[in-house]
Structures are given as C-alpha cells and as structure tokens.
Amino acid sequence: EDLQLADWCQALEPSVLREMIDVVSKEPGIINLATGLPEKDLFPIQEYKQGLATALASDPLTLQYRPPFEPLKNHIVKIMEKRGVICSSDQVFITTGAQQGLNVLTRMLLNPGGDVILEEVIYAGLRQTINPLQPHIHFVKTDLATGMDTNQVEILLEKGIRPPFFYIVPNAQTPIGVSLSLEKRKKLLEIAAKYRVPVIEDDTYGFLSYDGEEKCLKQLNPDWVFYLGSFSKIIAPGLRLGWMIAPPSLINTLTVLKEATDLESSGMTQRGVSAYLDKGTFWEHVEVLRNEYQKRRDVMLQCLDEYFPKTATWSKPSGGMFIWVVFSDVMNTSDLLNYCLEHAKVAFIPGFAFALPGTDASNALRLNFASCKPNKIRKGIELLGKAVKEYRKL
Q1: How does the average pLDDT of the chain come out, rounded?
Q2: Which of 34, 108, 182, 357 is the 20 to 30 A CA-CA neighbour of 212?
C-alpha cells in the first residue's frame, strides 16, 4: 500500500479491450463482436508449423540471441513492393509487433509534456504508448466517410502547435474502420512537408482491403513517412512480429531504444515466418482472408440495416475488421454493454475505450466482423438490435 508509483501510473485505467478478452473467454455462449481478434480458423497453422520445423532443423542457432534475420527482411522488401513502396533491406527494422514500432518511434520523437495532434477517437494502444510522456493532446474530428479532419490539423499548426509527429491509420482506421480519402492523404502529406512533421503510418490493416487497393502514405511520399507493418492480422497475432520502414541513418538509434524493451524480437519466430514465406503461398492466404472478411463485413452491414434503430449510423469500411456505430439520441454504451452481456449474450466495445480525455464517445460502440462466422454475426446483430430497443425503454 505504501509503494509510490510514478505520477503518470497513478492515473492509469484498466484496458477495456483486455478486460473484454477475459469476459468472452470465461462466459460461455457470448457472441464476441468486441475484441480485435482475427478469425483463428484462418490461421495458416500447418504451413507455419512446417516453416518453424524447417528453421529449427536447418539452423542450430535458431534459439540463440541473433541479429535481425536478413532473409525475413528481404521478404518484407518484396511485401512492401505489393504496397507500392520501393525500399531496401537496410531500411527494414524488425519489431515485436507494430505496437513496439509505435512505442519506439514515440519515445524517439516525443519530449515529455510535448504537444501531439490526434483524432478524438483513436487506437487505444497509442494512448498507452504516449501516457508515460504526459503530452499535451490537441484533438481533431474524424469523418465516418473520409477520415481525419486535415483542415483542423492545419488550423492547429497555424496557431503555433508543433507536434513531433502525426499518427494516422489511413486504411481502416481503428476503431472507426474508415479509410482516409485520397484528397486528405495528399493534404496531410503536404502539411507534413510544409511544417516538417514526420508521419507515423500504421498500416496494420492495409493488406485487408475489400473494395480495391488503397495507396499507403509511404507510397505517396516516402520522405516524410515512418511505415509500420504487422503480421498479426495477415498471419497470426501470437507471432508478435512486425516491421518498420525507416531511414538507414536511424536504425542504430531505433535499435538502442528497442533493446530497452525486449533486447530483440524472437529469432525463432523470424526464421519460422521467413521459412513460411519461402513456400510462396502467402498471397493466396491473404486473398482467402480478404474474401472471407469481405463476406462477413457485408453480412454485418446488411444486418445493421435490418435490425438497428434509425437513430444509429455507422461506418462502411473498405477494409480492416471493424465497424463504428454512433447513436444520435442519448445512449450510454457502457451501460448498454452490461445490459447486453446479461440479456442478449452479445459483446462489443463501448466508445469511451477509444476516446481521448476531454472528448466524448459514450454514444458509440465498435463491432468486429472478422472473428465470427456469418451466421453468428447475423444472430449477434439481431440480438444486439433487439437489446438496444429494449434498453431504450428502461
């Protein structure tokens, strides 16, 4: 009880997302439209198992401390070509998931108490990353159809706000699911170049596109963008393996910052993934994901139209895993969640879990369409829509 925590730790709140993983794993019969989990039945288990076995059999030092695995970096260079980005292996920085890349970059760029400009509703992992530095947060709105309000970003800069970076998920932003319009992508990059502010592009969902490929920012302007990629959603999250595309001159600095957290990313995992990629079936696997998740997205959108009240609007994502629902009337989705868990056995994430301090998303919720099969999505949305109508009568 007498242990004195750092000042910033004393204001920490439990992760709603982590709590929800515990809830749905312990409660039988819950339809999980909440957590950010991909479909486990689509993991390439046998192929990865073979790749790992190959790595262990061919390299006796697979389990030893090792530098980043060069063949994996070469594979990533080829993967980036598919995203329209030309890079070399000396620009590839291996991370323990995209989250670590985000952590390393924010520590490298953000001074304690510095200014940052963020969307009002944003990936919770970013908040956890910047919390220790206690920045002064300026927020801008996000349009459900076109993404971040880049005009508001420019106004803040004209007022003298000088953030050390812009953070953006341009393709299927989490939690909203919206993709940044091409016009706004170009505008943000123009602002970045004009004010010399680098962009951290989190492209975790960029490979999960359903209505045609959308250009990543790194493709449009390679000079002002740190690119973050991840195998979590396109192979499996348990790998905890991602990458960053960064200037070669910064790789040593990034390595020192990374060593403070985990010394290095698992050499065994790097070799296992590289051996799996050697097989040449990766892009077929990605296409399977795209086709299946697109079907599930379409089912959820259809069911929202069918079962949700007219006071609700929602994003229509062109990729990723999430749909963001906003109620125009008074609706506390935290209380609604408790009601739904008890009476409908359906889980979602209430909007406040993604809202920045000083903003309000209590009338919103996030749904995941990727982790449930279509018949369960239909049942879940029907039950959820019914529960919403019942809850409003209380």
Answers
A1: 95
A2: 34
Q: What is the per-residue pLDDT across 3-12, written as a single tens digit (0 to 9) for each?
A: 889 988 987 8
- Distance, in Å, from the CA atom of 121 to the CA atom of 140, rounded to the nearest integer, reads 9
CA distances for 183 relative to 105, 147, 152, 226, 318, angstroms: 26, 11, 15, 20, 16
Helix (H, G, I), strand (E, B), or coil: what is residue 245? strand
What one-character-per-residue DSSP string does 309-349 give? -TTEEE---SBSSEEEEEESS---HHHHHHHHHHHT-EE-E
For residue 222, CA distances in Å to 3, 212, 219, 245, 290 come to 47, 22, 6, 10, 26
**Beta-ladder partners of 32:** 347
**Cβ proximity of 308 and 325 under 8 Å:** yes
Q: Give the amino acid at 156.
A: L
How would you classify the pairing of strands 242-245 and 92-95?
antiparallel
Identify the DSSP state of 75: H
Measured between alpha carbons, how far is 92 from 114 in angstroms, rounded to an integer? 28
How many CA atoms lie within 13 Å of 37's alpha carbon, on the beta-carbon side? 21
